[in-house]
Design brief:
Diverse_CBS-Domain, 8 helices, CBS domain, elongated, two-stranded antiparallel sheet, 2 domains, single chain, Alpha-Beta Plaits, CBS_dom
Amino acid sequence: MIVRDIMSTKLTTVEPGETLAHAANLFRQYGFHNLPVTRRVHRTDDSGTRTVLLTCEGLLYSQDIDLAAAVSQNEGNGQPWQERLVVELMHSAAVRVTPSASVAAAAQILVERGLSCLPVVEYAPIENETRAILVGLLTRSDFLLALSRSMGAFEPGMQLDIVLPHGDMTPLARALLLASELRVHIRSVQAAPRSDGTVELATLRLGTINPMPLLLRLKEEGIEYSFGSPFLGSK
């Protein structure tokens, strides 16, 4: 999976010369925590078609405005925070990814650097200079949504937990074989180890809300399991 598959492309942006009052209104209106800071540039192709592009200039966070408002209130004089410009508070967006980068690599960057989002850019020549053109934004919410989808959380189905005595994977292997024989689709498999490295439970996401044939076979095989109510969702 690559970044293009999960990134947000319907973007709300601000420009460096706009006021913090305008940015604050956008944060309140849309409930965002991050706003890309961009500049509009024009590119004309060989056919004469003119296209408006957005260069990636930086990022503005909602907490920046909260801090500016608090400082302004405490000082009680000087320029009102609402009249200050985005360029005064915005952060450099030196860490970026391209649409073709792997989701795993992007997630590693996000976690290791403690970031809340990553600008997604493509590089293009603009006026004899290579510029970073903003094409999307990758947030922690995008990662969580992608993870949920990969686990089948938005598909009709149910969760089945297979007990693995003393970390023995044999019951899991047998359960998967039985599911294959019965043509029960397995959307995902998870087996997270404990702190000592032992895996005691494997969680299967079944692509069915009628698992009875599989459950009967598991019982016949002596495989311990537990399950919850069917989760009905839509894609």
